[in-house]
């Protein structure tokens, strides 16, 4: 496993992060989830990402159990706040001081730890003053409940505003967690240049485009049984934007490139996002331990420029590059 600094800090994380969105506490039985975490640890992964909203807090509980007994100082544990949790009442979501201060205590209890290494604003909250949010974050850092602050799916302007407040409160905003893959490149035009300027790294999710870049979905073919595209609990909805014959056909054109590098298509997809110098880590999920062992092989891979160009050529105009897509990620109202 290779390690990278997160943002303009002295904090190092594994360049592959194990995440449990859509799996722990919902799609995957707890024993299997724990086996996946064990596989991640065996593979040298030290960084684990979750959120209170995943499976309405159950994912944090499963991860806390799975990591119990590990040396805490050897791990980097990330979680997030914003989405509705518990009974989903009027103050059970967003980035208000009330919700943040209550949520961090709940997360720490479920994760069975005294602190998280990175506490992230899961989306931008248009209904709470940014000053209120960062004052709460600063208090959490001062209390030792979080070491660093991050955000997720923020625009370049939002990052700039958040970074200024973090600096004012003398805390470190060092990361942004966006969707990023060879198919979904909306952060490249604005978010990445701004992040480089501010000393913020990307912690990217869905590097395999919800499984599309594995090549297992083929044009005109039946969907593989048990795959995310058949999951009615949320997976099918997330993947549908890519499920057309043009996208699936072009993904198949990546197979010879992966073969030249001695990689599977999934490994190529993870390695591809890690070629971006502003990306500190790629989050992988798993429903089976074998998937962890396979995807972790993307760590440390260098893709030559000529092959990166061939990937661009193969995918062509199906690549989504519109930076406005990031603006669509955060709901404009808490009910939105």
Automatic annotation (TrEMBL):
<dbReference type="InterPro" id="IPR023210">
    <property type="entry name" value="NADP_OxRdtase_dom"/>
</dbReference>
<dbReference type="Pfam" id="PF00248">
    <property type="entry name" value="Aldo_ket_red"/>
</dbReference>
<protein>
    <submittedName>
        <fullName>Aldo/keto reductase</fullName>
    </submittedName>
</protein>
<feature type="domain" description="NADP-dependent oxidoreductase">
    <location>
        <begin position="15"/>
        <end position="314"/>
    </location>
</feature>
<keyword id="KW-0521">NADP</keyword>
<dbReference type="InterPro" id="IPR036812">
    <property type="entry name" value="NAD(P)_OxRdtase_dom_sf"/>
</dbReference>
<dbReference type="GO" id="GO:0005829">
    <property type="term" value="C:cytosol"/>
</dbReference>
<dbReference type="InterPro" id="IPR005399">
    <property type="entry name" value="K_chnl_volt-dep_bsu_KCNAB-rel"/>
</dbReference>
<keyword id="KW-0560">Oxidoreductase</keyword>
<dbReference type="GO" id="GO:0016491">
    <property type="term" value="F:oxidoreductase activity"/>
</dbReference>
<comment type="similarity">
    <text>Belongs to the shaker potassium channel beta subunit family.</text>
</comment>
């Amino acid at each position: 496993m290779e390690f990278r600094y997160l943002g303009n800090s002295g904090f190092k994380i594994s360049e592959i992060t194990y995440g449990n969105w859509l799996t722990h506490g919902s799609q995957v039985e707890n024993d299997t989830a724990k086996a996946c975490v064990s596989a991640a640890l065996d593979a040298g992964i030290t960084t684990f990402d979750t959120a209170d909203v995943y499976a309405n807090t159950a994912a944090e509980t499963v991860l806390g159990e799975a990591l119990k007994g590990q040396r805490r100082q050897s791990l980097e544990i990330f979680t997030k706040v914003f989405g509705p949790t518990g009974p989903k009442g009027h103050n059970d979501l967003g980035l208000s001081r009330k919700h943040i201060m209550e949520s961090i205590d709940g997360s720490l209890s479920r994760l069975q730890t005294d602190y998280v290494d990175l506490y992230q604003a899961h989306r931008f909250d248009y209904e709470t003053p940014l000053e209120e949010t960062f004052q709460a974050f600063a208090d959490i850092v001062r209390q030792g409940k979080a070491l660093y602050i991050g955000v997720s799916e923020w625009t370049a302007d939002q990052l700039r505003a958040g970074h200024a407040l973090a600096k004012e409160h003398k805390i470190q905003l060092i990361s942004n967690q966006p969707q990023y893959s060879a198919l979904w490149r909306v952060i490249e035009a604005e978010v990445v240049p701004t992040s480089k300027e501010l000393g913020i790294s990307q912690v990217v999710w869905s590097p395999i485009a919800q499984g599309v870049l594995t090549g297992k979905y083929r044009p005109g073919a039946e969907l593989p049984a048990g795959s995310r595209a058949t999951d009615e609990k949320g997976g099918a909805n997330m993947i549908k934007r890519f499920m057309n014959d043009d996208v699936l056909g072009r993904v198949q054109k990546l197979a010879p490139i992966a073969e030249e590098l001695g990689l599977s298509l999934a490994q190529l997809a993870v390695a591809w996002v890690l070629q971006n110098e502003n990306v500190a880590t790629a989050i992988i999920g798993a429903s089976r331990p074998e998937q962890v062992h396979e995807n972790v092989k993307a760590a440390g891979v260098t893709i030559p420029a000529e092959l990166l160009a061939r990937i661009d050529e193969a995918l062509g105009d199906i690549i989504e590059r519109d930076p406005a897509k990031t603006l669509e990620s955060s709901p404009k109202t808490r009910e939105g």
